[in-house]
Amino acid sequence: MSDDQTAVRFGILGCANISIKLCKALSKAPNAKLHAIGSRSLEKATAFAAEHGLPEAVRVYGSYEGVLEDEEVDAVYIPLPTGLHVTWAVRAAERRKHVLLEKPVAMNVAELDRILEACEAHGVQFMDGTMWVHHPRTAKMKEALSDAQRFGQLKWIHSCLTYNPGPEFLKNSIRVKPDLDGLGALGDTGWYCIRAILWAVNYELPKSVLAFPGAILNEEGVIISCGSSMHWEDGRSATFHCSFLSYVTFDVTVLGTKGCLRLNDFALPFEESLGFGKFLEASELDYGKIEQGMWCPKPNEHVVETGFSQDILMVKEFADLVRKVQGCEMKPEKTWPVLSRKTQVVLDAVKESIEKGYQPVEL
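Above: the chain's sequence. Below: its structure in token form.
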């Protein structure tokens, strides 16, 4: 539980399902607390607070503006539909509220630039809501990839994040409405795939992006399934697939000249509730055994313990940055905006390649 005297006070704009997860994370983060929540109506916000047992001290507002006008709110979490991000993130920054913005962060990089410019102009911290990068497992995997003796030179990455929520979702969810979340599966699940690929290459942008033929769009032109390849000048390449039409899959494979790293649960560890996450790593082939027909060595399973789940760790890290900015110990950390922007640039390129009839897009 947080120390109420030093905790960063959060306001939440909207009562989306993901808000439930953040409410729980805020209740457990040692340096943050939920101070206010707002919705389009007071009735909806009040019902949300009651249903999820929010503390009575949490202020409930019948508008998003009400949260921003609350002078005691230090930071806001914005889980609104992507089409509303630029409006409310800019307004939050103008009120000097630090911004934790759900992914995908914007409909395109031009909108994101407006958000980031507002955050910089008003001296507030920005971070997107990609939780898995905050898990200690992620840092351990990076150590493995950086070990040239074990992993060698990176050659290829593949990421796949799919789920099949059914016909009701495909008809009515905001994620398939062009005016709300017009990026569809590319924004929802493709964001994770792209971020995983960029993470593996230390966020070096590819030279070119080429969407795979056969992307599936709904009647309103929203992507519900697609894939893409990426290529770097040094010969590295990557592929990904994202979809609302396939069985649930959270896979990443990173292949080097000497080793391989694999995850089947990269966006959300299967067993994180038990205090750990796992990943598989294979290296150091025995070529004598290969000559005997034993091609596939058993991978090593690494277990990474954690005291907090990745959503709590994200809130904790963001709140720590906010407190340092408020205390004039540092200016807003620019790493997080840069990572968000690079992810958005690649996402935009995939969408552009689809719209151009699956032509390559140079970056």
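The mean pLDDT is 94.
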